[in-house]
C-alpha cells in the first residue's frame, strides 16, 4: 500500500509536536486529519501544508479532547468521511500546574479528562476505522512538562 493511501489523525496540531508531525506526514504523502480545538489555528496549519508541500489531502476537524460530546461528534463525522484510519496520534494535552482545580464539562479534572479519558474514548470510538487498516498504529505523545509540577 502506498503512502498516498494512508490516513493519519493527529490531535493538538495547532503548534509544537502536533504541527511538526502533521507537516512530516503530509510531506510523506499521507492524508492528514488535524484534530483541533481551535479550528482557526488548524486552518492556518492546513494552509501552510497545502502551500509549502502541495498536499491537498489535509483536513481540519474540530475536537475538544476534554469533552465527551465533542469527541463523540468528532468520531461520528470522522467515520462518515473516512472508512479507515492507519495512525492515530494522541497529541492534544492540557497541564496547568499551580492553577485552581478545574473540572471538565463531564466532571473530570481537566488534565485527566484531556490527557487520559478523552484519548481513551476517542480510541474506543475509532476502533472500527483502525481495524480497516492493514497496519494500524496508536501513539500517545508525551511531554516532560510534568517536571515543572514537582
Provide tags for this entry:
150 residues; five-stranded parallel beta sheet; single chain; alpha/beta; Rossmann fold; 16% strand
Question: What would you note in describing this structure?
Answer:
With 150 residues, this protein is of the alpha/beta class. The chain contains five helices and five strands. It has one domain: Rossmann fold, CATH 3.40.50.720. A five-stranded parallel β-sheet has the order 3-2-1-4-5, sandwiched between helices. Helix 3 runs parallel beside helix 4.
Beta-strand portion reads: 15-25%
CATH class: Alpha Beta
State the end-to-end distance.
Answer: 46 Å
Q: What's the CATH topology label?
A: Rossmann fold
Q: Count the beta strands.
A: 5
Q: What does the average pLDDT come to?
A: 91
Class inferred from helices and paired strands: alpha/beta
Q: What is the string of helix and strand elements? A: EHEHEHEHHE
Our count of helices gives: 5
Architecture in CATH?
3-Layer(aba) Sandwich
Radius of gyration: 15 Å
Low-confidence parts: none
Provide the spatial order of strands within the biggest beta sheet. 3-2-1-4-5
Helix content: 40-55%
CATH superfamily: NAD(P)-binding Rossmann-like Domain
> How many structurally independent domains?
1
> Mind describing the biggest β-sheet?
5 strands, parallel
The general outline is: globular
Amino acid at each position: 500500500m502506498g503512502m498516498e493511501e494512508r490516513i493519519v489523525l493527529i490531535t493538538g496540531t495547532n503548534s509544537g509536536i502536533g504541527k511538526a508531525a502533521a507537516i512530516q506526514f503530509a510531506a510523506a504523502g499521507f492524508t492528514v486529519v488535524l484534530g483541533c480545538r481551535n479550528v482557526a489555528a488548524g486552518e492556518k496549519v492546513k494552509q501552510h501544508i497545502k502551500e509549502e508541500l502541495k498536499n491537498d489531502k489535509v483536513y481540519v476537524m474540530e475536537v475538544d479532547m476534554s469533552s465527551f460530546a465533542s469527541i463523540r461528534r468528532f468520531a461520528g463525522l470522522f467515520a462518515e468521511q473516512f472508512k479507515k484510519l492507519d495512525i492515530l496520534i494522541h497529541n492534544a494535552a492540557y497541564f496547568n500546574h499551580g492553577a485552581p482545580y478545574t473540572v471538565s464539562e463531564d466532571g473530570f479534572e481537566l488534565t485527566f479528562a484531556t490527557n487520559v479519558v478523552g484519548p481513551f474514548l476517542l480510541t474506543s470510538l475509532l476502533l472500527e476505522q483502525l481495524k480497516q487498516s492493514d497496519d494500524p498504529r496508536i501513539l500517545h505523545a508525551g511531554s516532560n512538562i510534568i517536571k515543572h509540577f514537582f
